[in-house]
Design a protein that fits this description.
Layout: E1 3-5, E2 26-30, H1 34-46, E3 50-54, H2 57-64, E4 71-74, H3 83-93, E5 103-107, H4 112-120, E6 125-128, H5 133-153
Parallel strand pairs: 1-6, 2-3, 2-4, 4-5, 5-6
């Protein structure tokens, strides 16, 4: 199931969106921005998840070899290989469960063509930067829950 979401920036002091939990979920964060990675790592950790951080597609591929991942948050615009290349790696070169796990694009590239390319390359969801912590946790929770339901319905 592919979804696209656009969020308007809001003041976090007035954000009353309840925070979901990510207890036990292993989340790969791939972004060349150390600040963005630090923010996403803090959000995931505070919700009970286990973040794995990569600052490039190459680093992400190394983590994929050993980490038991449930989902990934992937930036599109990175030096060297782009997030699109990583999406295609997951969908075309990996085996299950990695080839079918939910992939969330988290990007400031918000033109329609960027969204369409990401979704066509295998993204499950597109979240525009800037994002709110509670909405990011909810997005992760929603796509991983949907993935579990879909995998169980195959039996």
């Amino acid at each position: 199931i592919a979804h696209t979401t656009t969020q308007e920036p809001r003041d976090s002091a007035t954000d009353d969106t309840p925070m979901c939990r990510l207890d036990g979920l292993n989340v790969l964060v791939v972004d060349d921005s150390h600040l963005t990675c630090d923010v996403l790592k803090a959000i995931i950790t505070s919700a009970g998840g286990n973040p794995y951080v990569a600052h490039s597609v190459r680093e992400a591929k190394e983590i994929v070899r050993t980490a038991p991942l449930d989902t990934a948050l992937i930036d599109l615009a990175m030096p060297g290989e782009s997030g699109i290349a990583l999406l295609e790696f997951f969908r075309k070169e990996c085996v299950e469960p990695l080839s079918t796990m939910p992939l969330i694009v988290v990007s400031a590239c918000v033109f329609d063509k960027d969204r369409e390319q990401a979704m066509h390359s295998g993204a499950s969801l597109f979240v525009a930067k800037p994002f709110r912590p509670a909405e990011m946790v909810k997005a992760i929770r929603d796509v991983t829950t949907a993935s579990i339901i879909n995998s169980r319905s195959k039996f």
